[in-house]
Design goal:
- With about 625 residues, this protein is of the alpha/beta class.
- It has four domains: about 170 residues, Rossmann fold (3-Layer(aba) Sandwich); about 100 residues, no CATH class; about 190 residues, Rossmann fold (3-Layer(aba) Sandwich), CATH 3.40.50; about 130 residues.
- It has 25 helices and 18 strands.
- Strands 11, 12, 13, 14, 15, 16, 17 and 18 form an eight-stranded mixed β-sheet that branches. Strands 3-2-6-7-1-8 form a six-stranded parallel β-sheet, with helices on both faces.
- Helix 3 links the parallel strand 2 and strand 3.
- The mean pLDDT is about 90.
- It binds adenosine-5'-triphosphate (ATP).
- The site of adenosine-5'-triphosphate (ATP) has 16 residues, from helix 2.
Length: about 625
């Protein structure tokens, strides 16, 4: 076995320069809390810390690190970074997943350990449970359902941790509702319910809890500011008062999940419970200095928090641009954006994927007109709403890479990705089995190339090829390793969406590589909601439709709304644009016109930033 590196000899992978507090946080032996702003390298710090723990033997074989993120793509991104930093062999002891996937994996394995009345055999994951839960309350206790002042019944069902106290009447009803729902054949459960039940499994089965605690020596918590009450209770049940060491990273200015139940004062609670040492980071590695000054200005004025971010010395002091643009209507706006973007794209100065257009909600209000005009001038843009989720799912991404290998034998990246996926789902293999897997995979793709890359495929051939690839990967192993695919429905749904899109593109272009580019959005400007921009970064970010008071009314908006705006803004590396129109047609509101009643509010705030550039077409 490879020797561990001595702690005093360890240096960050890729010789990455890090600020002092980050170095200290990596080497901290106790629990820690790293609170830091956007672009401060929180995710990078977790990847480096994992590398440190695995390479120095602080996390000794066979112990593992568990990293919990909120979104599937964030979990994948962290896993990839660790693999890159310390290689596949060590990274096999780094489990990176979402809270939901983690609890579901325990639930699927141990749900027979639930107490009588709560046992679940087969079940379905259903994210839309509001009506079913309300119906369950009604059928268990109609009077309670109609009169009890418990607020949202869907939330109320999972508001209490098990075991429920028998003395309180309202809680007795809660227990009855749970039993009623779980009695149904193949009951539907949402992730909150699954997590509460998993928590219960661990409470009543100390052996299961012990297995978990023996497996993981270190727990990483990414985006910790968004942790909900249910998740925090679950985390405590799993690991609090165990030898596991906690590292939480987050940013209180990036709390955007208030609507989804983010726990209040989560940092204080966690610090009290774990006695975590704080490590504040101040560097912002992502954005140019002028953008950081703008972010600091908004942190101070809008979020009313101390603004401490400093730029890295990789930038010149005046680099970065913040521009506000005023137009009489959306036609002038889109023409201006077309002119600007054409200029930026000229001679490949900027890739389309490095520009992002953001709207608050309802991309369909804004994107069709932009996409239409851009496409007339040879610029591709697309609404990412449907495809974004798909492209963060490991199995469709694997299939896309595998197709690329069938149609282009020279793609080293596709081969790396495909093989990494196969290694991951065959984690238990010994070295000689891995070698054999490599040989078999090379042969599989050689054969697939001979059989399928020899003329245009019809839809039957296309589906056959996808089926062959899925069979080669072994769907059972895929399901075993990705809890979200276990019940098969979600997997079917995303695969159907993917193959439909891909087949359409292939039929249009006759070229699989072009179709794959279209699927991945290569050479395409993404249009998305500000929520979806979380965790991403772009050279240029354009906020469209800021005059819409539904978008942004900062005087009346809540902290999470302000935070969401701030998070989206902090995705920009070098340039940010805000556009306002005096009038704008709103297609889905009966073709009406929206007037700019929000314009006076936010524009004042942005306008007062001393380094703002203005483009004004309103006479
Ligand atoms: N020490 C470093 N040196 C140079 N670049 C870095 C360093 N740490 C991070 N970066 C780069 O800065 C950017 C932001 O890093 P990262 O995504 O880790 O930050 P974050 O704090 O998790 O961001 P956010 O909370 O805004 O999503 C990335 O492009 C990353 O590669």
């Amino acid at each position: 076995m490879k020797k561990y590196i001595r702690e005093e000899d360890w240096v960050p992978a890729d010789n990455m320069h890090m600020e002092r507090a980050a170095h200290n946080a990596i080497r901290e032996t106790g629990n820690s809390l790293i609170v830091a702003g956007p672009g401060s390298g929180k995710t990078e710090l977790l990847a480096q810390k994992a590398t440190f723990l695995l390479q120095t033997g602080r996390c000794p074989w066979p112990k593992k690190i568990l990293a919990i993120s909120f979104k599937v793509d964030a979990a994948n991104n962290l896993r990839d970074r660790v693999q890159m930093r310390c290689g596949q062999a060590l990274a096999r002891r780094f489990d990176s997943m979402t809270f939901d996937a983690f609890s579901k994996s325990i639930f699927d394995r141990y749900r027979r350990g639930l107490p009588e009345g709560f046992k679940v055999q087969q079940y379905n994951v259903n994210l839309k449970m509001k009506q079913a839960i309300e119906a369950a309350f009604l059928s268990v206790d109609e009077e309670f359902a109609r009169t009890a002042n418990v607020g949202n019944q869907e939330k109320y069902l999972t508001a209490r941790q098990f075991p429920l106290s028998p003395n309180d009447q309202s809680i007795a009803v809660l227990g009855d509702v749970w039993r009623h729902m779980l009695r149904q054949p193949n009951p539907d459960l949402n992730f909150q319910m699954i997590m509460r039940l998993t928590d219960y499994i661990l409470m009543v089965n100390p052996k299961v809890k012990a297995i978990l605690q023996q497996t993981y020596s270190h727990i990483f918590l990414d985006e910790f500011q968004d942790t909900t009450d249910i998740q925090y209770d679950f985390l405590k049940t799993c690991f609090l008062n165990s030898p596991a060491n906690f590292t939480a990273v987050g940013d209180d200015k990036q709390t955007i999940m208030g609507w989804a139940g983010a726990k209040e004062k989560i940092f204080e609670t966690y610090s009290n419970d774990t006695k975590a040492r704080p490590f504040p980071l101040t560097m912002n590695w992502r954005s140019a200095p002028r953008l950081i000054r703008f972010q600091n200005y908004l942190v101070d004025q809008l979020l009313k928090k101390p603004a401490i971010a400093v730029p890295s010395d990789l930038w010149g002091d005046i680099e970065g641009e913040v521009r506000m643009c005023f137009f009489p209507d959306h036609n002038r706006e889109r023409q201006y954006l077309l002119d600007q973007i054409s200029g930026w794209l000229k001679n490949g100065q900027l890739a389309p994927r490095n520009i992002c257009i953001l709207v608050k909600q309802k991309t369909e209000y804004y994107s069709p007109a932009l996409i239409e005009l851009f496409s007339k001038h040879g610029i591709k843009a697309r609404d990412e709403t449907e495809l974004q989720d798909l492209l963060t799912e490991p199995f469709p991404v694997f299939i896309a890479d595998a197709l690329e290998l069938v149609f282009s034998s020279r793609s080293a990246t596709a081969w790396d990705n495909v093989f990494r996926f196969l290694v991951f789902i065959n984690q238990s293999y010994e070295d000689d089995q891995m070698l054999s897997l490599r040989r078999k995979t090379i042969t599989f793709f050689k054969n697939a190339r001979n059989n399928f890359n020899n003329g245009r495929l019809n839809s039957a051939g296309f589906n056959l090829l996808i089926g062959e690839i899925a069979k080669y990967a072994n769907i059972k192993k895929v399901k075993d390793n990705y809890p979200q695919y276990k019940d098969g429905k979600w997997l079917r749904k995303i695969m159907e969406a993917m193959t439909t899109y891909l087949l359409k593109q292939y039929t249009l272009t006759g070229n699989m590589l072009t179709a794959l580019d279209a699927l991945r959005g290569a050479d395409t400007i993404p249009i998305m909601t500000i929520h979806k921009s979380k965790g991403l970064e772009f050279h240029t970010v354009i906020f469209v439709g800021l005059e819409d008071s539904a978008f942004w009314s900062y005087q009346t908006s809540t902290t999470p709304d302000n935070n969401t705006f701030f998070v989206a803004l902090s995705r920009a590396k070098e340039r940010v644009l805000f556009t306002f129109c005096q009038t704008r047609p709103l297609p889905t509101r009966g073709g009406g016109t929206q007037y700019a009643n929000g314009i006076q509010q936010i524009h004042q705030l942005i306008n007062n930033f001393s380094e703002i550039d203005i483009h004004n077409e309103i006479s």
